[in-house]
């Protein structure tokens, strides 16, 4: 089943808005990135050839953060998270927001607890700062 999540953050004169649509498949990946050596979790971008490696890395970071929790929810099942679409407007985008958007998608999709990511805006750099818990 496919599900969508829209991440929104506005704490200044501009914000971040990233929409992610993905589906979960119970199988081992043929292509894609294994998220963690400990868990049977892969990430695929089947129709998103326009994404840069940096963008893919940020998406993987968000999923990697909750990979252990996902594995606990599904047991020993192999899972692939297939990203169907990622959309954003350049004026409402910051690369690091992709990892938070993917994390939030996973929290909803797998019924995980919400993780506190401290989101602040730096006027000096005109960028959002994300502080991930350890």
Provide tags for this entry.
single chain; 134 residues; alpha+beta; two-stranded antiparallel ribbon; globular
Structure description:
The chain is of the alpha+beta class and 134 residues long. The chain is built from three helices and seven strands, in the order ββββααβαββ. It has a five-stranded mixed sheet with strand order 1-2-5-4-3. The mean pLDDT is 93.
In short:
With 134 residues, the chain is α+β, with helices and mostly antiparallel strands. Helices cover 26% and strands 34% of the residues.
Radius of gyration: 15 Å
Strand-residue fraction? 25-35%
The outline comes out as: globular
- What about the largest sheet? 5 strands, mixed
What is the succession of H and E elements?
EEEEHHEHEE
Query: Residue share in helices?
Result: 25-40%
- The overall strand count is 7
Helix count, DSSP H or I runs of 4 or more residues: 3
Average pLDDT, to the nearest integer?
93
Structural class: alpha+beta
Q: Which regions are unreliable across 5 or more consecutive residues at pLDDT < 50? A: none
Gap between N and C termini? 31 Å
What strand line-up does the widest sheet have? 1-2-5-4-3
Q: What topology does this entry show?
A:
Layout: E1 2-10, E2 15-25, E3 33-34, E4 41-44, H1 53-65, H2 67-74, E5 79-87, H3 97-110, E6 118-122, E7 127-131
Parallel strand pairs: 4-5
Antiparallel strand pairs: 1-2, 2-5, 3-4, 6-7
